[in-house]
Design brief:
211 residues; Alpha-Beta Plaits; 4-stranded antiparallel β-sheet; 4 strands
């Protein structure tokens, strides 16, 4: 162990180097008695532990909105796509087959309204049934996006839904929420509160070590 830095100057330097961890707590008091190498080693251990704990504090009830677009429905991909999410361990809490109106789609894609492809997107999404779903599980939004793959199927890895089932970006099979807040907004747009079910899957304790 390195000798402690006990001079007033070193103590001031240590105070300036106070570090904030993911949990929000500062360096522990023992840091005042440790040398730079020992502080760095202990800091890495604390951050690794905090990251591990954070994995288990994320809610297992996070929800994401996933929609199988008209091309995916027409190609008979509803079953395979549902299977991908169920096999991963996510829980289906809402589902409907619907042909959305132009007004509904303009609301859903309002952030893209200034794009030149917007009219074509609205026409395409309203050309047939859409399978709208809400999936629930830990880190559902982020992991859902990973399962779908990149927006452009050409950039999607094999094994992802778009990587396996799509070629053209204009026929990329599915939509997935890109953030927790947008998921809440999209779920509220597509489903009434009573249409989203609350239930515990029998395999819950075999999927999650901690709730």
């Amino acid at each position: 162990m390195n000798p402690p830095e006990s001079s007033p100057a070193s103590q001031q330097r240590q105070q300036r180097q106070q570090h904030q961890y993911p949990s929000g707590i500062p360096d522990p008091p023992i840091f005042a008695h440790l040398g730079p190498k020992d502080r760095a080693h202990l800091r890495r251990n604390i951050e690794a532990h905090a990251a591990h704990e954070h994995q288990f504090t994320m809610s297992s009830s996070e929800q994401t909105f996933i929609a199988i677009k008209p091309d995916g429905v027409q190609r008979g991909l509803i079953g395979p796509i549902i299977s991908r999410f169920e096999s991963r361990g996510f829980k289906l809490v809402a589902i409907k087959l619907t042909v959305p109106t132009k007004e509904h789609l303009e609301k859903h894609y309002e952030d893209l309204s200034s794009k030149p492809f917007f009219p074509g997107l609205i026409a395409y999404m309203g050309s047939g049934p859409v399978c709208a779903m809400v999936w629930e599980g830990r880190d559902a939004v982020k992991t859902g996006r990973v399962l779908l793959g990149a927006t452009n199927p050409a950039a999607s890895a094999p094994g992802t839904i778009r990587g396996d089932y799509a070629i053209d970006v204009g026929r990329n099979v599915c939509h997935g929420s890109d953030a927790v807040e947008s998921a809440k907004k999209e779920i509220a747009l597509w489903f009434k509160p009573e249409e989203v079910q609350s239930w515990k899957a029998a395999q819950f304790d075999w999927i999650y070590e901690k709730p």
